[in-house]
Specification:
Layout (H helix, E strand, L loop, with lengths): L22 E10 L8 E5 L4 E6 L5 E4 L1 E6 L5 E5 L2 E3 L14 E10 L10 H4 L5 E7 L5 E7 L8 E9 L2 H9 L12 E7 L12 E4 L12 H4 L20 E4 L4 E3 L6 H4 L2 H13 L7 E5 L3 H12 L4 E5 L3 H10 L3 E3 L5 H9 L5 E6 L7 H9 E9 L12 H5 L3 E4 L5 E2 L2 E2 H11 L8 E6 L3 H9 L7 E5 L1
Parallel strand pairs: 3-6, 5-8, 16-17, 16-19, 17-18, 19-20, 20-21, 24-25
Antiparallel strand pairs: 1-8, 2-3, 4-7, 5-6, 9-10, 11-12, 11-14, 11-25, 12-13, 13-15, 22-23
Bound molecules: zinc ion (2 copies).
The site of one zinc ion (ZN) has 9 residues, from α3.
């Protein structure tokens, strides 16, 4: 973000002595050029306090908006758009923004004695605050509600969600849910840090991050699993404060991984699913030179192909059900992509390996049938490894005699963590920043949060040509 002086000179009088330790609201007006504060970091001066201001929502044009300014003496002032924002539809200037707009500012000034403990940000801003959240009604209908801002649990940061992917597991969970959601789900987000906990040094407001929502973002950082980097298994996680199908979410800084500067929001929202499969190949023990068979070419299958390629697989064979998945599997690095009918993957692997079978197979489909797991086992060589990433639902019968006779190793993989000294999120971020894989290009449809129901429909209906559906916030 480039500095701009758009806000320099706004003077907000301090509260009089009689109002110390209380809150004062003021309305201010300031005309600014809507282009000049694009990504602005400006200075706001008060007679006694001086702090930086970060304008959230940069790269959008705000034609008429409300802002909330929170002032902590000596601390950070956050300016957050609360009004209607209009994203540019083309190149900068394409939407012909007016040459100047009047931004009305509603400033909440908290004036505290320097000797008294700093109030937390909620005490500074007593306004009841709401945000948009997409909630499933229990019958598969997802719609936008006004929800309270997410709970700031101890040690948590506030993140303004920018983009998020719809995951196959979101579709499964919506199918299985029978009651109205009260908190949004959504676990593939990227966003901008809005507020950080006191004394935080790892991240700052304005940082662009991929959010690890399931493990490290809620982890206690003290238990056995946290101390060994396996945050997904933390035994004392923070209470659920809501997922990312919303304007805002809260997670601890440990779960916020900074994006590389050359990454778009779209690529930021691909970090989570790529990390799932990066973890699968690393936790599953795939080695350089292995022949790998991947069952399924939806998002996690495509990520598995890309991750196996990056980890040095010799040959990769994948199955794909839809033409757009087949094309994307090839772009992600598969040497051969076959259909998803019973026996097709096994036959292809056998012919490619002179009847030996794959060293490693990765099952990414899951669902309500064990057929994908049978395919994974059939494609593996004797004493090979079957990595199970797909989520199988319910209680399903399975014939374990064939894999037992073949001495297969089953390796179950869920989410991510630290493997060989590197967090799977950071490995995924490096892969996406290098832009060497077709996985960067798997997003076929993007909808706005207000249109999220349409996004779910597209994600369900693969005949729409969808591979990955994203939601912009
Ligand atoms: Zn997922
Ligand atoms: Zn823990």
């Amino acid at each position: 973000m480039k500095n701009s002086l758009a806000f320099t000179g706004i003077t907000m009088p301090c509260a009089p002595a009689s109002m110390q330790n209380s809150t004062q609201r003021r309305r201010l007006s300031q005309s600014i050029d809507p282009l000049s504060w694009k990504g602005v970091t400006g200075m706001v001066k008060t007679p006694r306090h001086r702090a930086s201001a970060v304008v959230m929502g940069y790269s959008v044009f705000v034609h008429r908006a409300w802002f909330v300014i929170r002032i902590r003496p000596g601390g950070v002032i956050l300016v957050r758009a609360r009004g209607r924002v209009q994203r540019p539809t083309g190149a900068p200037g394409a939407s012909n923004p007016p040459s100047a707009v009047t931004i009305r500012l509603l400033a909440t000034v908290a004036q505290a004695h320097t000797s008294s403990p700093r109030p937390d940000s909620h005490e500074e801003n007593p306004m009841s605050d709401t945000m948009r959240a997409a909630l499933d009604d229990g019958n598969g209908i997802v719609s936008i509600h006004q929800n309270p801002m997410p709970q700031r649990f101890p040690g948590s940061a506030l993140i303004a969600v920018k983009q998020i992917g719809i995951c196959g597991s979101d579709l499964h969970m919506n199918n299985e849910r029978s009651r109205q959601q009260t908190l949004p789900s959504g676990h593939e987000p990227t966003g901008e840090v809005a507020e950080v906990p006191e004394f935080e040094v790892r991240i700052r407001p304005g940082d662009r991050v991929a959010v690890e929502t399931i493990g490290s973002g809620k982890a206690c950082e003290k238990c056995y699993f946290c101390r060994t980097g396996q945050y997904r298994h933390c035994i004392d996680k923070a209470e659920e404060s809501g997922g990312a199908f919303a304007d805002y979410m809260t997670r601890t800084p440990l779960g916020l991984h900074k994006l590389a500067d050359n990454m778009s929001w779209e690529e930021g929202a691909l970090v989570e699913p790529l990390a799932v499969s990066v973890h699968a190949v690393r936790w599953g023990g795939m080695k350089g030179g292995d022949t790998v068979a991947v069952v399924g070419s939806a998002t996690i299958g495509l990520a598995a192909i890309a991750a196996a390629r990056a980890q040095g697989a010799r040959k990769i064979v994948a199955s794909a059900r839809y033409p757009q998945q087949k094309e994307m599997a090839e772009r992600c690095g598969a040497d051969l992509v076959v259909g998803s009918e019973l026996g097709e993957l096994e036959d292809a692997v056998q012919s490619l390996t002179d009847g030996l079978g794959a060293d490693v197979t990765i099952e990414t489909v899951g669902g309500n049938s064990m057929a994908p797991l049978e395919t994974a086992c059939a494609a593996a060589r004797s004493q090979g490894t079957v990595i199970v990433v797909g989520g199988f639902r319910g209680t399903l019968p399975y014939a374990f005699l064939p894999p037992m006779l073949s001495e297969l190793t089953f390796k179950f993989s869920s989410c991510y963590g630290i493997v060989d000294g590197k967090h799977d999120y950071d490995v995924a971020i490096n892969m996406l920043a290098d832009k060497n894989t077709g996985f960067n290009d798997i997003v076929t449809h993007t909808v706005s949060l207000d249109d999220i129901e349409k996004g779910f429909d597209l994600a369900y209906d693969k005949t729409s040509g969808s591979v990955k559906v994203h939601v912009t916030v």
